[in-house]
Each structure stands twice: as structure tokens, then as C-alpha cells.
Amino acid sequence: MVKLMKGGESMNGKIVAGVLVAALLIVGIYLFSMSGPVVSAQGFSTLTVQPDKASVYLSVESRSESAQSAKEAHDTIMDDVITALIKLGIERKDIQTVNYNIYPEYEYTNGKQRQIGYIATQQLIIKTNDFDDVARIVDAGVSAGALVSTINFELSQDKQNEYKKQALESAGKDAEAKASATAAGLDKKLGRLVSVGSQDFNYPGPIVYYDRAIAAESSISAQRAAADIAPRDLEVSASVNVQYKLRRW
User: What contacts 6, CB < 8 A, 6 or more positions away?
Assistant: First the structure.
């Protein structure tokens, strides 16, 4: 009985020793694979895309001797503008009103400041996916008493997400191709991917198609600009940094 126990203990000891050796071997192989040369590369991609959304910024301004009368005049124009837009078929949810303000108006004579009344202002932002609507929005707004501040062409959030995915995928492939070419130049092959960083996506933002302050210098009217709509393409880009192990065999 005692001999059997010793034999069992001996067998267990061999098993434990074998497991330890195997574990050390695995650790050694892992550490060996972790060490050694790596190759780094940065991939880039640029996509030329078309904007899919337009934003027309209208402003309503009224002047009067009192704040109350300036407000009342402003409200009348605002109602007329919104009514005209809705008659065009623009949904109310696509008409956003922002930046409402009433402030004193002054004039300067011989270096002296004198208040002459009040100005009431507010901005409307009308968004549309149909570029043919832009000229109609501008005409309706101006006819109802509004001014056109800016016309922008841009990417919707859905399109930004779609192009971001495409651009990053292309940048990743470009980075891998560069790393592989570098390894081949050293008579090596790529091993496993070690790290990925700086996954940058660049969307330059809306194209300003019309700006009232700039247009005033060249006497370009918003209605004329809107009638000649030809929005430019946008360029979105991405970059990815990668690092690969170089295979030892």
C-alpha cells in the first residue's frame, strides 16, 4: 500500500513537472514573439463625395422707436416668412428659429452717441435634402421680408457616418500595404498586428455657398446665387497608424 502511494506521488510529480515545462515553453515562445523588430506605417485615404443636405439661414430684422413696436413688427414679418415657407411644402420641424434679440440702436454725430430706437432680430434655419428647394426657399423668404444670411451645403450625420467607415477602412488597407511593402524591402514578411492608433476622420464642414457679408461686396444677391446653384463636391479624409511584428521565419 505504501509503495503504491509512492508510485502515485512519483507519477503526479512527473505530470506537474511536465505541465510546468510546457507552461514555461509557451511563455518563452510568447515572449520570443513579443520581442524583435516591428514595422510602423501610416495609412491615408481621401473620398470625394457630394453633399446631401442644404441649410438656408434667413434673418428677420425690424427697427422702431420702442422695443415693443420693434418686437411687434418683427413678429409680423416672422409669421409671414414661416407661413410662406410652409406653403412651399417645408415642414415646420425643418424650420428652426434661433438667436432672438432686441437691442438699442444708436447713431453717432460729431463723436456723440445718441439712441434712435430699437432693433429686433431673429434667425431661421431651414434644412432640406432637395437642392431644388433652395431657390424657392430664398424667394419665399425674401418676398416675405426676410434677409438671407448664409446658404450652406453639407453632409447629413448618416452620410458622415457612412463615409467615415469607408475612409477609415481604406486608410487601414493603405497602412497595411505600406507596412507590407516596407517588410518586403527588408526581405521580411508581416507578422501579427501589434497596435492601431490615431484613427482620424476629417470632415471639413459645410460649404458656404452664399454669405451676405461677402456677397454685399460683389453685389451678388441671394436670389441670383440660389438660382445658379452648383454645389461643389466635398473631400473627407482619414488616417490610421499601425504597427506590425516582422516574422522571424
Answer: none
